[in-house]
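re: that chain from earlier
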Amino acid sequence: MPLAGITIKATSPARHLEKLKARLSGSTVVGQVFVVSERIISDHGYFRAGITLMNGGFLEVSEDFFPG
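^ sequence. v structure.
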């Protein structure tokens, strides 16, 4: 299941990570994103963050991704 209902088409792990962070920071329901960990390892990557929502809620999310 995509992170927060976000589907991202990317050709590389670096591009996927870039698009993911842009989509989260541009969301109207997201207040702040606190990146805990991010890694790019040749053909895949990993992202972990804490997200404060505009309604005061908090999410902790992670994604291990293999774009392409």
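Residues 13-25 form the longest helix (13 residues).
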